[in-house]
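Example 9 (inverse folding). The structure is encoded as follows.
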């Protein structure tokens, strides 16, 4: 039964369940890094990681940037409005 679930899940998403969960968590972290002023540590906890190093490794693998680099490049929370 479990094997059938894994097969169907991977066929539907292209990912294993754990990989899918990582992508969902990283997507939520990316949004927080872009639009909030929460610290990276707060975001790590918010998206369900207990280990900052593990989060950073997964984030870097999926996004290609560290969380700090991502916020620096795409974060808009503290920037003044553009006229």
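The amino acid assigned to each position is listed next.
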């Amino acid at each position: 039964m479990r094997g059938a679930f894994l097969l169907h899940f991977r066929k539907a998403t292209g990912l294993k369940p754990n990989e899918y969960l990582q992508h969902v968590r990283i997507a939520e972290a990316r949004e927080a890094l872009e639009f909030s002023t929460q610290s990276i540590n707060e975001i790590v906890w918010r998206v369900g990681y207990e280990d900052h190093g593990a989060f950073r490794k997964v984030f870097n693998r999926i996004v290609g940037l560290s969380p700090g680099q991502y916020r620096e490049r795409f974060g808009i929370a503290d920037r003044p409005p553009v006229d």
